[in-house]
Design a protein that fits this description.
binds pyridoxal-5'-phosphate, 425 residues, globular
């Protein structure tokens, strides 16, 4: 019996399902982690894996990036929680307003879910309307407002029990990459806000068609609907100013987490001053948290953003090149295998493969992909010490720490996995 199997047996007795977040489980049991550094994750069974889960996108700089880890260690010796304001919170908010085009003001929170929940509350208060429009396969956290036809772990399970029907009744879901459908839904529901992952990263990876995001901006603006970019994945990853900068579009509000903290729990809501100023104590929208702006996460985030802002001309092109080499290598392996019905979507430092010959441009086309083949791919890659997120409805993340050697190993592992998939037919 492996150490991971033993630990999973113990975990199942005290942790529901043996994991603290459902996406971490896969049959028969997940491997347990012992440590990580750079592009590698070491398992409880002493195996070293090339990691493409990368904290589901949080670790753009790689595991245990020294400047970030040092900033956190230094802060720990000075205290971990004050619950009074600090200069460093002001500094971090100033940095975010400089980097993110739509960010006139910033409120720090702890998780992406908290950020989207309060961004929606802000939009409701600002417009005095109730409804929310989201997109098929878009994931914005596990709270009641947005857990309708969601992506990530929620893509493979029935609608969650315990979610208030009254809350879901105010959430409409429209297909991504379909501007007329959004227009019709806005006309019908007169919503407070539209919340969108600019690039869907929780239903596999799905890119916006050319001009789609500017259509979304135009339609929301014309109808006085608050546009929220959920940049929990894309923020500070696609570009220093996230998808807003990458696509040249300014939403009214945006939410950030993941790459902001480079592995530490921190998130942010940012956007137009007149909307943000409604937050208590400046305004009447209540939002509060004991750990918001805690000095350890804030110090880590300052260090991370410092590195990303000052090194942007080297970091972003390098990570994109690494991702491109992996994708090109995988495509060559597919050809060498004599062809497989599959399609790969990629942008910046993110990629995902779907086992379908059709283009994947929304949830419906993503769900047509053969998930049994994806599962086989996951297993075969893991046997070869390459770890990708275990679900088709996630994205693979490349970091600044991934090197040529990782790329070679990864491409070779994909090639061997494809042969096994082909044999299985
Ligand atoms: C786009 C997006 N929004 C929100 C969330 C929720 O963030 P958290 O898990 O930090 O609550 C996630 C998590 O994966 C996400 O990918």
């Amino acid at each position: 019996m492996t150490r991971s199997e033993q630990l999973f047996g113990r975990a199942g007795r005290v942790i529901p399902g043996g994991v603290n977040s459902p996406v971490r489980f896969y049959e028969p049991y997940p491997f347990f982690a012992a440590s990580a550094r750079g592009s590698k994750l070491v398992t409880a069974d002493h195996r070293t894996l090339v990691d493409y889960c990368m904290g589901y996108g949080a670790l753009l700089l790689g595991h245990a990036y020294s400047a970030v880890a040092d900033a956190a260690k230094t802060q720990i010796d000075k205290g971990t929680l004050y619950c009074v304001p600090t200069e460093r919170e002001v500094k971090l908010a100033e940095m975010i307003t400089k980097m993110v085009p739509c960010a006139e003001m910033v409120r720090l929170v702890n998780t992406g879910s908290e950020a989207t929940m309060h961004a929606i509350r802000l939009a409701r208060a600002f417009t005095k309307r109730k409804d929310v429009i989201k997109f098929d396969g878009g994931y914005h956290g596990a709270h009641d407002y947005v857990l309708a036809k969601a992506g990530s772990g929620a893509a493979s399970v029935p609608a969650s029990e315990g979610v208030l029907e009254e809350a879901s009744a105010h959430t409409s879901v429209v297909p991504y990459n379909d501007a007329p459908a959004l227009e019709r839904a806005i006309e019908k529901t007169r919503p407070a806000c539209v919340i969108i992952e600019p690039v869907l990263a929780n239903i596999g990876l799905v890119l916006p068609d050319k001009g789609y995001l500017s259509d979304v901006r135009k339609i929301t603006q014309q109808n006085d609907v608050v546009l929220i970019f959920d940049e929990v994945v894309t923020g500070f990853r696609l570009a220093p100013g996230g998808a807003g900068e990458f696509f040249g579009i300014k939403p009214d509000l945006a939410t950030f987490a993941k790459a902001l903290g480079s592995g530490f729990p921190i998130a942010a809501i940012a956007g137009r001053k007149e909307i943000m100023k409604q937050l208590a104590p400046a305004g009447a929208v209540y939002q509060a948290s004991t750990f918001a702006g805690n000095p350890v996460s804030v110090s880590a985030a300052i260090a991370a953003l410092d590195v990303l802002a000052s090194g942007k001309d080297a970091i972003y092109p390098q990570v994109a090149r690494t991702c491109d080499s992996i994708v090109e290598g995988i495509e060559e392996e597919i050809e060498d295998t004599g062809g497989l019905d599959c399609t790969i979507n990629s942008i910046g430092s993110m990629f995902q493969i779907f086992f379908t010959k059709d283009k994947v441009r929304d949830e419906a086309s993503a769900k047509k992909a053969d998930s049994a083949k994806f599962r086989k791919l996951f297993d075969e890659l893991l046997k070869r010490n390459v770890f990708i997120p275990p679900s088709q409805f996630e994205t693979c993340f490349v970091s600044y720490a991934h090197e040529e050697d990782d790329v070679d190993k990864t491409v070779e592992a994909y090639g061997e996995a494809f042969k096994k998939i082909k044999e299985q037919k």
